[in-house]
């Protein structure tokens, strides 16, 4: 990870926002998601917009069809035992239509983003419509 941390950067504001999101969503009643992207010129990882999404369809609509993104997601679930669980995961969104340069850019920063955001696990998705089945993906691997 040492080489990634020298190549890609997070602003202090982004690092604080990652921590605040992680801590603030642990007791959320509704799904919460934020989209992160890499600036190709500065290689800084930052939030794509200032929106926190609570609707998976709106989130899917915001994901571009040609460019990768990292999505941090906190999704409350009721387990078969009746206990409430709020998994905190990173969705590595990598559409099949994106070019090789972007694939390499996002692949190189994936573990750094995972460690900096302190997510429990990474779920890879190639199609934004797969977000509709996120509950099954989260509930199936507890």
Description:
This protein is α/β, with parallel strands linked by helices and 142 residues long. Helix content is 36%, strand content 24%. A 6-stranded mixed beta sheet has the order 1-3-2-4-7-8. The two termini are 27 Å apart.
**Which parts are unreliable, with pLDDT below 50 for 5 consecutive residues or more?**
none
Could you say which structural class the secondary elements and strand pairing correspond to?
alpha/beta
**Within the largest sheet, what's the order of strands?**
1-3-2-4-7-8
Proportion of residues in extended strands: 15-25%
Largest sheet: 6 strands, mixed
- Secondary-structure element series: HEHEEHEEEEHEH
How would you briefly describe this protein structure?
With 142 residues, the protein is of the alpha/beta class.
Which characteristics define this entry?
two-stranded antiparallel sheet; globular; 142 residues; alpha/beta
What's the topology here?
Layout (H helix, E strand, L loop, with lengths): L1 H6 L1 E2 L1 H13 L7 E7 L5 E4 L8 H7 L6 E6 L2 E2 L5 E2 L2 E6 L6 H18 L3 E5 L8 H7 L2
């Amino acid at each position: 990870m040492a080489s990634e941390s020298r190549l890609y950067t997070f602003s202090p504001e982004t690092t604080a926002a990652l921590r605040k999101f992680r801590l603030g969503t642990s007791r959320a009643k509704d799904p919460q998601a934020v989209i992160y992207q890499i600036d190709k010129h500065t290689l800084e990882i930052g939030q794509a917009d200032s929106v926190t999404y609570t609707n998976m369809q709106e989130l899917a609509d915001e994901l571009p069809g040609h460019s990768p993104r990292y999505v941090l997601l906190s999704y409350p679930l009721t387990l078969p035992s009746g206990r409430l669980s709020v998994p905190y995961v990173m969705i590595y969104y990598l559409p099949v239509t994106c070019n090789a340069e972007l694939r390499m850019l996002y692949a190189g920063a994936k573990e750094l983003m995972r460690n900096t955001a302190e997510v429990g696990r990474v779920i890879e998705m190639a199609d934004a419509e797969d977000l509709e089945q996120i509950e099954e993906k989260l509930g199936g691997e507890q």
